[in-house]
């Protein structure tokens, strides 16, 4: 699941349950509530990437993003390490 639009379009409780059960992975640039309070369960949810509401559009972004996505897909298919991976405890 990828949400970079509006936090309220995702049922946070259902998402948390699905993440804990390993049925889904997610990347959220927006949350409900936002900002996400300290101690909220999303901070520790397995299989979740959180970004601080930084998704957006700028000149040339679509072209760069498409190139990056293609490169990441090729790396994955070749069994190579992905770029820009942030691990817990960074």
What does the model show?
This is Dehydrogenase. GO terms for molecular function: NAD binding; oxidoreductase activity. Keywords: NAD, Oxidoreductase. Pfam families: 2-Hacid_dh_C. It comes from Thermus tengchongensis. This protein has 90 residues and is an alpha/beta fold. It has two domains: 2-56, no CATH class; 57-90. It has two helices and three strands; from the N terminus they run βαββα. The chain has helices at residues 12-20, 61-78, and strands at 2-3, 26-28, 48-50. The chain has a three-stranded parallel β-sheet, with no helix packed on it. β1 (2-3), α1 and β2 (26-28) form a beta-alpha-beta unit. The protein starts with a strand and ends in a 12-residue tail after the last helix. The model has no long low-confidence stretch (mean pLDDT 89).
How is this fold's topology laid out?
Blueprint: E1 2-3, H1 12-20, E2 26-28, E3 48-50, H2 61-78
Parallel strand pairs: 1-2, 2-3
Descriptive tags:
90 residues, alpha/beta, 3-stranded parallel beta sheet, 2 helices
